[in-house]
Amino acid sequence: SLTPQGKQLAGTTTHSLADLSRAVASLKIRPHTQHTTLSCSPSFAMLWLTPRIGSLIQAQPQLSVRIQGEFHMLDSFRLEEDDIKAGIRFDPGGYTDLKATEFLDEWLIPVCSPHFLAQHASALKQGQLRSEWMLHDANPWDNAPENAEWNHWLKKTGRPVPAHHTGMHFNLSQLALTAALSGQGIAMGRLALVLEDLKKQLLVCPFAEAVKSQASYYLVSASIEGEEVNLIRQWLLEEGRRFVEQRASYL
Prior knowledge:
Blueprint: H1 4-27, E1 36-40, H2 42-49, H3 53-59, E2 65-69, H4 76-81, E3 86-91, E4 99-111, H5 114-119, H6 121-125, E5 134-137, H7 148-156, E6 169-170, H8 173-181, E7 186-190, H9 191-199, E8 211-221, H10 227-250
């Protein structure tokens, strides 16, 4: 393991190599592209962003947006190397080398199918919540603690945290939600991803408590950005405000 001196040297070396990589990347001849690549967490891209993005294109027809589903951590070097104009990430924030704008906070609430609720109605009415019923997004954000979302909700609602989580784990929130829709258990729903299914009663809430998430949705970009990223930011802020109103009305 690194000594304190080694840690100090490692930090300095990392920043120096990143600066060197950015300088080399800037010298590369890139083909001129007309599109704006937007890296986005896959579940959020599929369930929230894609159904709404058409309104941005209608309002700004000069924009050509390419959405790229991925959830790895972004930094200024990665943006430059992959020719990504901006990214949308769900995480607790704390960016140091990127411009980050929080455009939507998140609330967590357990969700399941009506069939699962009916099948376990007696136990659920008594407040029982078995570990094997819990469906997990194993990576809600990069380097998230194990079982982060379920444990956060359990603690905030005064329920015991299982010593061992025996329910199924998935690497995407949408996969956990798909399992819940098919009656396999209870997923920890993010309201941005489940509100439409709740309205349609494809999903229901076995417990009424909604808890504010530790993470939010951020638009992240390089400190120097083009007009197209600013247009996307303004649109996301407006869509975020609109969704918050819809969410409050539902809750």
